[in-house]
Every structure is written in structure tokens, then in C-alpha cells.
Amino acid sequence: MMQDIKRMKKSSLKRLFLAIIVILLPAILISQMARVQDVQAFEGDEYMVGKVIEIEEKLEMDDYGYEDTYQEVTVDIKKGSEKGQEIKLNHGYRAELMESEQVEKGDKVIILKTELAGAPITAGSSAYFISGFYRLPALLMVFVIFVALVALFGRRQGLRSILGLIFSILVLAKFIIPMIIAGGNPLFYTLVGALIIMFISIYLSHGFHARTTIALIGTMITVTIAMGLSVFFVHITKLFGTGSEDAFSLQTFGALENLNLQGLLLGGIIIGTLGVLDDITVSQSAIIDELKKANNKLTVRELYDHGISVGREHIASLVNTLVLAYAGASLPIFIMFSINETMPFLLMLNTEFVAEEIVRTLVGSSALVLAVPITTALAAIYFDTHPSPKNTSSAHIHKH
């Protein structure tokens, strides 16, 4: 009888979960339509895909008497309004063409067709430029390999985690970013989006279990604390979100001239923190559950002490991982600072860019540290009074 009741509760939770997805996804799509206006560099721009079929190296003197080397490229358009046509354009004309930017015969490239005045080579009233290599097929291959590895070693749970990842990207791309572009507060909509991502992706990845719910609650509490810490740290360090050239350049777009860069910085910290919290909260909750299964006589205090012992090892590895991840993403900038012999080291730390990365890393690391005792305490209290059946795992294994 009790087992039937539990199955009914679990079935009800699944129906509730599916209902939320059915309601939420249309809401996210509708929110995309709430954008005030589209952001474009120039009206009438068009991007096409082409294949380089002929290259001729050119050399001439520029206005200052220096040699100017560029490529005269013939491109066969494969995708776009001019599919099947061949166009000629100058690549690197009147600009320093780095070796990595040079194209070769057979390369697939992205062609920008624009009405921008002053272009070197035109066909009719339009100008054509090579804006970069066409990388989508290679990126798709990398993604397929990733999914195959996850499916091979993670099985069904791994595939569920892929669905959670896709959903997270959808929330980010179709809800958080459009609402920020439409003029919404970046911190508020990032927090709302983070809560949606937490709820859906954690259950999708780890299933409907008590340990998952505890991990979700621990994550929500920790993210809320991280938000408070990030607001406090950003305020006392007087950061305004202008340390990144990419963030600063957003305000050059007319529709984004009033973008709250400080809010964008805070929102980025929350998203980055959320990305690593899932791992530690789910792990700590599962550890306490397994400890109680192994020894039903363990008290709340003993469960907490054993769990926190494992958690300390988790903290040590994850904090190091988080710091290295942020450092790796900003490595070129750090190298540029390191070779700057005119600025003292302490003044380098004082620059807004470096200060932003320090605050981002320390907030994320602080959240990780806090997530361990919070989730461990929640799990110890719950599983002390609601222990999972000891033979659940083994019965499931033998059944298959």
C-alpha cells in the first residue's frame, strides 16, 4: 500500500514537471517577441557562405610608402541569395593581414555583403568582405562526438544531462538575453532565468529523487547568497562592468546605449556560479543518502561530520578548477599585463578588468565553499528521518 502511494506521488511529480515545461517553453518564446527592437550593425547586411576557388597575392604601396600585401580572392557562393555566382574581392586590403587570417584554395568562408560606403571591391552598389571561416560543420562534429561520449559512458542519465544543457542554453538565449536587450534589469532577469535553469536541468539530469530536491534547495539558497555577495563585492570595489572591451563596445549599438553594464557583470557572476554549484550540491546530497543507507544508525551529527569530510576534498578540487577556468579564459589579457613593464603589479590588480575577474572568481569560490555545509546539513536532517530503502540500488541493478 505504501509503495503504491509513493508511486502515485512520483507519477504526480512527473506530470507536474511536464506541465511546467509545457507552460514554460511557450512563455519563453513569447518573451522573445517582447524585444523592443532588433540590433543590427547596418540595415541591409547579408551573410553568405562561399568556397574559395582562386587566390592571387597582391602587393602595392600604401599612402605612407609601406608595402601592403593582400589577397585577391574568387569565391563561389554556396549559400545565400547569390548562390551559384562567383565574386571577386580583396581580402586584407588596406589592413594588416595576419597569417591566421589568410585563406587558402578550398576554404569555406563567410561572406558579408553590405551597403557600407568606401568598400574596395564592389559589385553593383554592394561591397563584399570575408568575415571569417565557415566553422559550423566542424563544430557540429565536435558536438556529435561529445554527445556520443556522454551517451556511451553516462547512458540515460548522461543523455538527460544533455537535454538539461540544451534547455539551459534556450533559457539563456530566448529569455535572459532578450529581456536584457529589451531594457530589463540584467541582475533580476538573470536570477529568474537561473532559477528556471536550476529547477528544470537538475531534475532532468538527476531524476525525481529526494536527494535531487535537497540539492536543488541547497543550490537555490547558495545562489541567493552568491547574489548578495556579488552585489556587495562589486559595490565596495566600485566596479561598473566596463573592464571588458566586449561589454563596453555593446554601448556603441544604438539600441543598447543605456545597457546596465554593472547589472550585466552581476548577472554574469550568477550564471558562472550556477554552472559549478550543481556538481557539488548533488554530490553532497548523494553522499549523505548513501551513508544513511550503509548505516541506518548514524545520527544527524555523524552524517554531517562524514559528509563535510568528503565535502572538504570537493571544495579543494573545485575551487582550484574554478580559478583555473577563469584564468584560462582570460589568459591573453593576463599575458598582455605581464609584459607591461611600465605598470607596477599592484596597479595591474587595481585595473577594472583584473578586479572584475578577481571578484568573479572569489564570489564563485565563496559560493562553492558555502554550498557544502548548507547542502550537507539539509541532507543530514532529511535523511535522518526519511532514510531511503537500503536495497533500492541493488534491486534496480538485478532487475536489469
Structure explained in plain terms:
This protein is of the alpha+beta class. The protein folds into two domains: 91 residues, OB fold (Dihydrolipoamide Acetyltransferase, E2P), CATH 2.40.50; 245 residues, no CATH class. It contains eleven helices and six strands. It has a six-stranded antiparallel β-sheet with strand order 3-2-1-4-6-5, with no helix packed on it. A hairpin with a 5-residue loop joins strand 1 and strand 2. The chain is elongated. The C terminus is likely disordered.
State the main characteristics.
single chain, 400 residues, alpha+beta, OB fold (Dihydrolipoamide Acetyltransferase, E2P), disordered C terminus
What class, by secondary structure content? alpha+beta
Main β-sheet, spatial strand arrangement: 3-2-1-4-6-5
Average pLDDT reading: 78
What is the C-alpha radius of gyration, as a whole number of Å? 27 Å
Annotation field: number of helices: 11
Number of separate strands: 6
| Low confidence ranges | 28-42, 118-124, 391-400
Report the helical percentage.
55-70%
Between the first and last Cα atoms, what is the distance in angstroms?
24 Å
Proportion in β-strands: 5-15%
Shape: elongated
Order of helices and strands: HEEEEEEHHHHHHHHHH
How many structurally independent domains?
A: 2
Largest sheet: 6 strands, antiparallel
List strands and helices in order, with pairings.
Elements: H1 2-32, E1 46-61, E2 67-79, E3 86-91, E4 108-114, E5 122-123, E6 126-133, H2 136-181, H3 186-206, H4 210-236, H5 245-249, H6 261-294, H7 300-329, H8 331-338, H9 345-350, H10 352-385, H11 392-399
Antiparallel strand pairs: 1-2, 1-4, 2-3, 4-6, 5-6
